[in-house]
Model the fold of this input.
Amino acid sequence: LVVDYSMDYLDVPDNDRTIAAYYVLFTWLYDCFRDTGYLRAMGPWGKGKSRFVSTFGAVAYRALTMLGLSTLSPMFRIRTHTLCTLVMDEINGPFVESPAELEMYFNAGMSVRSPRVWRSEGKDAIPTSFSGSYGPKIFGSIKPFRDPATNSRCITTQLTTPTTRTDIKAQDGEFD
Done:
């Protein structure tokens, strides 16, 4: 069903579509596993990264959609309470690297055994821990992370050519 759904909205190679569809199914039961990788669409502008992220993010488990400019604080706080799939677009740009803090968050978040995030809370600076780094993530980026270890955690679909299909449907909020 996920493959059929994505055919209506996205033009990617069949092998990448199938892998992404399995990843989406995985998001619905990721908490049964000790480790998780991430699903990444990567390539230059205008090749379908945002469409990839929004199409597969729309059917992922409890998708929390954020732009790459979002700060880390709400990410781990919300994920700690909702156990959602983090869906992010535009995590870096042609002249901008991903924030080091975001890369560290992605690097550490692949294992349920990952250390917790600690922050001081409130005016009394009470130490509080958050478990929100572990979990599935679907995101789009123009280039790889600086850290090879973080890149190794990604199942990457390289998008390098614009679509040639004329039958792709517009998504909510888009114009035909």
The helical segments are 2-9, 14-27, 49-57, 72-82, 100-108, 148-152. The radius of gyration is 16 Å.
